[in-house]
Amino acid sequence: MATTTTPTETKTITFTATKPQLFVESSKVDDAVSFYKNAFGAEEVTRVNHPKRKADQDAPLVVSAEVKIGSLTVIVSDIVDATAKEIGTGIVFWLETEDIEAAVEKAVKAGAVAEGELTEGEGACDAAAGRVGKVKDPYGIVWVICTPAKKTADVEA
């Protein structure tokens, strides 16, 4: 009697969250978390310090500090080597709000630098045609602040 093999089924994988990781200069995680709280209303959720802290360090090496900004979860870590520093560059975060001016102003008051002027109109932002502002935080991370994307109603043909 011949045996029959069934084709291998492919399991669908669903991702439920995206957690960007930011690498900041060693021993600056506390400052970064404080900045994100002041500028963007972040809430610190968890923190993990490295268990083998060197005696000559003033502050423990932070493996990760997880913060929530709206519905976004971000992991902030101390840089541990040159490779991690390279990974931490070139990240851009998009934050949606109806009050662009106030959001940019609050971030600047907390220590960010505004990049360019607020823009408006079609094409101002790929995700939303509306007002857009951009700031760079003290750690070199760029934050684009724009109005929420307009939701379109489904149209039946």
TrEMBL record:
Residue intervals of the VOC domain: 18-148
SUPFAM superfamilies the record matches: Glyoxalase/Bleomycin resistance protein/Dihydroxybiphenyl dioxygenase (SSF54593)
Top-rank taxon, per record: Eukaryota
Gene3D superfamilies assigned: 2,3-Dihydroxybiphenyl 1,2-Dioxygenase, domain 1
One Pfam assignment: At5g48480-like_N
Matches recorded under PANTHER family: BNAUNNG04460D PROTEIN-RELATED, VOC DOMAIN-CONTAINING PROTEIN
Name of the protein: VOC domain-containing protein
Lineage: Eukaryota, Viridiplantae, Streptophyta, Embryophyta, Tracheophyta
